[in-house]
RNA sequence: GGUGGAGUGGCCGAGAGGCGAGGCAGCGGCCUGCAAAGCCGUAUACGUGGGUUCGAAUCCCAUCUCCACCUCCA
């Protein structure tokens, strides 16, 4: 069975055929760092993180490049309004994005290039486009000539004459309303630090060119997969593809787009102001639960976010954690290497190979956990061990292995030493309660349990003694 | 106007011609001193109207509703 992925360009699932056997090059449009990350941003990042993990698990060496757009109109405007230097403003939010990605277990990309760090590459590509007749200079700015490139509109099936007129720039400088800026001449009110020398005078890069230039630098003229949010298809990705191909490069072989997070059916976005900030969500829920909530819906389907979304995800996460903890106590935890290489259930593989069918894959995990819990009750250690290994391996593919270091002890945010000390203290209470229970002194036993519960410590009685855990909800 | 997507049980969500994914919530039961956790059971779902078929949530026609992109957006 080979991996099949839905290609936005052809609107069908296609077998993933890498350019180079055993390798996968991915360019992912990262954030424009002009405001704080919301859960929609994380959804996209998690979707492609799962793609990376599945490719790696399938034996590919993945090179994932995720850019940072650290200069654009809004960044300059917002920084100016706030009385900040634009570069400090951009870096502040770049750090917030990185922290948010890391919090939900998104792997660090192989490269994380910034637009402002690649001015030479950008200038080189623009000069190439001017030289071959696909771009023209006007008043110190350079525009891409959409009418000059017959492939324009190929990605999103747009016919130039059917599009509504663009309103992003005065028409007088452009030959066609849909021509877009590759290079923007410096305006008098813009800071000197936001300007670079070019053959056309001082200025800064347009929005789309940086991705073409950086993809070219890190992944070459042609690469396997280009990803991003659905809203980037047009005009951003269309323009990227047009300028790269007009420059003579093959560019992306396959396009993947992740869908939005919606609230009451409407898209969550910066401009609508209905974005749920990552910082707000993580103040009330575990990061793993957020990741699970974001990954649980197929990446091409809208994810309807409601107040219960995180509660449900937390319940599922607690179920996974609970099984892994109980099973590990009973039969021992497999090593990380074993988890990373264990054979995966066929149904899981089939689901993931079918355009990353995470919802179906999750169903397999739940079935495995149920079987494991049943085996635990039945005392079938062999079955428990098998279910534990299978469950952790599958969850590992989704970046949600409860036994992985990044999630261990996350609830308290506590160090191993602190957890050890807490365990020492709670054990004393558990022993006292066991003595009370043995004496059928239920009042004392319940009082101990209630007192611990008040501190956020949950006691569960089992056949072979009581165990404790921290409550899921803070 | 152009392009694309969606309507599935209380909720979230898979599936895509024939055995009713999975989760959450609910209800009944088992277990438990009581809980918690866990396990077992439990829903006659597929926007509407036609059609094709032995058989349709899945195919065809029509129709309604919603969302998005075409301006910045994951």
List the SSEs and their pairings:
Blueprint: E1 4-7, E2 12-15, E3 23-28, H1 39-57, E4 61-66, H2 73-82, H3 86-103, H4 119-131, E5 135-138, E6 141-144, E7 180-185, E8 203-205, H5 209-219, E9 222-229, H6 233-246, E10 251-258, E11 261-263, E12 266-267, H7 278-282, H8 287-295, E13 303-304, H9 307-331, H10 336-341, H11 346-353, H12 358-378, H13 381-397, H14 416-438, H15 442-454, E14 457-462, E15 465-470
Parallel strand pairs: 3-4, 3-9, 9-10, 11-13
Antiparallel strand pairs: 1-2, 5-6, 6-7, 7-8, 11-12, 14-15
Helix pairs in contact: 2-3, 4-5, 5-6, 8-9, 9-12, 9-13, 11-12, 12-13, 14-15
The protein binds one RNA strand of 74 nucleotides through α1, α6, β12, β13 and α9.
Structure overview:
- The chain is of the alpha/beta class.
- It folds into 3 domains: 4-258, Rossmann fold; 278-397, no CATH class; 416-470, no CATH class.
- The protein has 15 helices and 15 strands.
- The strands form 5 sheets. The chain has a 4-stranded parallel sheet with strand order 4-3-9-10.
- Strand 3 (23-28), helix 1 and strand 4 (61-66) form a beta-alpha-beta unit.
- The longest helix has 25 residues, at 307-331.
- It binds one RNA strand of 74 nucleotides through helix 1, helix 6, strand 12, strand 13 and helix 9.
């Amino acid at each position: 069975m080979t991996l099949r992925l839905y290609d936005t360009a052809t609107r069908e699932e296609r077998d993933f055929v890498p350019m180079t056997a055993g390798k996968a090059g991915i360019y992912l449009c990262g954030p424009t760092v002009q405001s704080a990350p919301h859960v929609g941003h994380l959804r996209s990042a998690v979707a492609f993180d799962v793609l990376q993990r599945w490719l790696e698990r399938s034996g590919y060496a993945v090179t994932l490049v995720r850019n940072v757009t650290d200069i654009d109109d809004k960044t300059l405007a917002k920084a100016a309004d706030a009385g900040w230097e634009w570069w400090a403003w951009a870096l502040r939010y770049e750090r917030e994005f990185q922290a948010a990605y890391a919090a939900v277990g998104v792997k660090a990309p192989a490269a994380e290039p910034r637009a402002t760090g690649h001015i030479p590459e950008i200038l080189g590509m623009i000069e190439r486009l001017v030289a071959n007749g696909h771009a023209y200079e006007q008043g110190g700015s350079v525009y891409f000539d959409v009418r000059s490139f017959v492939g324009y509109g190929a990605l999103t099936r747009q016919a130039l004459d059917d599009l509504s007129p663009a309103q992003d720039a005065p028409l007088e400088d452009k030959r066609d309303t849909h021509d877009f800026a590759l290079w923007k001449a410096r305006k008098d009110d813009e800071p000197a630090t936001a300007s670079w020398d070019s053959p056309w005078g001082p200025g800064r890069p347009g929005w789309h060119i940086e991705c073409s230039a950086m993809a070219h630098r890190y992944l070459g003229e042609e690469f396997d997969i280009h990803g991003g949010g659905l809203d980037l298809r047009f005009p951003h990705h269309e323009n990227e593809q047009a300028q790269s191909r007009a420059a003579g490069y093959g560019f992306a072989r396959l396009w993947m787009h992740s869908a939005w997070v919606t609230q009451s059916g409407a898209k969550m976005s910066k401009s609508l102001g209905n974005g749920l900030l990552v910082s707000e969500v993580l103040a009330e829920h575990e990061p793993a639960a957020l990741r699970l909530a974001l990954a649980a819906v197929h990446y091409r389907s809208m994810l309807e976010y409601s107040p219960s979304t995180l509660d449900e995800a937390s319940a599922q996460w607690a179920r996974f954690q609970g099984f892994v903890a109980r099973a590990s106590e009973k039969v021992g935890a497999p090593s990380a290497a074993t988890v990373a290489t264990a054979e995966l259930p066929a149904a899981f593989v089939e689901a993931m190979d079918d355009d990353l069918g995470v919802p179906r894959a999750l169903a397999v995990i739940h079935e495995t956990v149920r079987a494991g819990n049943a085996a635990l009750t039945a005392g079938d250690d062999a079955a428990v061990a098998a279910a534990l290994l299978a469950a952790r391996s599958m969850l590992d593919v989704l970046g949600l292995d409860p036994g992985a270091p990044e999630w261990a002890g996350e609830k308290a945010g506590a160090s191993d030493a602190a957890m050890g000390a807490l365990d020492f203290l709670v054990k004393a209470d558990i022993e006292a309660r066991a003595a009370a229970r043995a004496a059928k002194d239920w009042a004392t036993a319940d009082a101990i349990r209630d007192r611990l519960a008040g501190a956020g410590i949950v006691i569960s009685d089992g056949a072979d003694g009581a165990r404790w855990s921290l409550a899921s909800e803070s």
